[in-house]
Specification:
This protein is mainly β. The protein is built from no helices and 26 strands. The strands form 6 sheets. The chain has a 9-stranded antiparallel beta sheet, with no helix packed on it.
């Protein structure tokens, strides 16, 4: 597994160089797989940079195209599926997607350039499928000030519809003893008999984290505030993740004492010839940068 780095005066961002190595697994998109975001001065990071599982690579801040696309008869015991950002997998009926077997990893091309004195990396995967599915996935990694920006473009080059969803999976590090971690998700709180609705933007202590994989549905999230934030009161570090698109839902997951994840989802639905653009923006800040709102107009402090 090879790593590459982009950096500016504030941040250093480590990411996986996408290859067809089997060790990269069958789940996460290999392009724009962030290992860590580090402050240049302190060299302190936000994510668990080593795998938290012995038999699979699970670390950093990757993203996943959640629903694989069947390429063979759905009624068969074993189904060949297309996993965007990865390749062709073998799925056994009734088993978890985590148990899918990698049959073929599709290749990537990765180039580096400097724009306005800023290092950038562009990762591209182009796929043609005889079953009518094909796509071009482009992912650009860049840093603007204290914000890591991952720009994405997916184009359906096949003759069949592409329908899935994509989410970002940050493995936030909570190994700091008594770190006093918190998280913040803007959402509606319904009043009595659902007659009233107020906007809840409170910071919540990590100890109140909900059960794993219980989603917050999109109709509860406020579409004008398409962001989440988290941090540590002890270290003062905080991070906000936002997108220009409205989240369809948010999943939450935690391994107490090790890491936790707040996973915003975006829907993907492309007819042949159509393209979809979206950004993941990760702002690395300090506690004194009070995060009050991030709407379509950007950060407001």
């Amino acid at each position: 597994m090879q790593m590459m780095t982009v950096k500016n005066q504030f941040l250093e961002v480590e990411f996986v160089l996408p290859t067809d190595d089997v060790e990269l697994g069958n789940r996460f998109c290999r392009g724009a797989w962030i290992r860590n975001v580090l402050h240049r001065e302190s060299h302190e990071g936000y994510f668990v940079a080593e795998s938290i599982e012995a038999d699979a690579l699970v670390f950093g801040c990757p993203h996943e195209f959640r629903t694989a696309i069947p390429l063979s008869d759905r009624d068969c015991t074993e189904v060949t599926v297309l996993k965007i950002g990865v390749g062709r997998l073998l799925h056994r009926k009734g088993s978890s997607r985590f148990d899918d077997k990698l049959l073929q990893a599709y290749p990537w091309q990765c180039t580096f350039e400097k724009r306005n004195d800023v290092d950038q990396a562009l990762c591209v995967q182009e796929v043609s499928e005889s079953q009518g599915y094909g796509y071009i996935l482009e992912q650009r990694i860049s840093i603007e000030g204290s914000t890591l920006k991952i720009g994405n473009r997916l184009k359906n080059t096949g003759s069949k519809r592409l329908e899935t969803e994509v989410y970002i999976h940050p493995f936030f590090d909570e190994r700091q003893k008594d770190g006093q971690y918190w998280y913040q998700i803007p959402q509606h709180t319904l009043g009595a008999a659902a007659q009233t609705s107020t906007m809840n933007m409170d910071r919540v202590n990590l100890e109140a984290f909900p059960p794993n994989n219980v989603p917050i549905p999109g109709d509860v999230l406020c579409s004008a505030y398409n962001w989440i934030a988290t941090g540590s009161r002890k270290t003062g570090r905080c991070m906000g993740i936002y997108s220009e698109s409205s989240f369809s839902k948010i999943n939450m997951w935690r391994e107490p004492g090790l890491c936790y994840a707040i996973e915003p989802y975006l829907p993907i639905d492309l007819e042949p010839g159509e393209s979809q653009l979206w950004n993941w923006c990760l702002h690395a800040g300090q506690e004194n940068e009070e995060i009050r709102s991030m709407g379509r107009g950007g950060w407001k402090r």
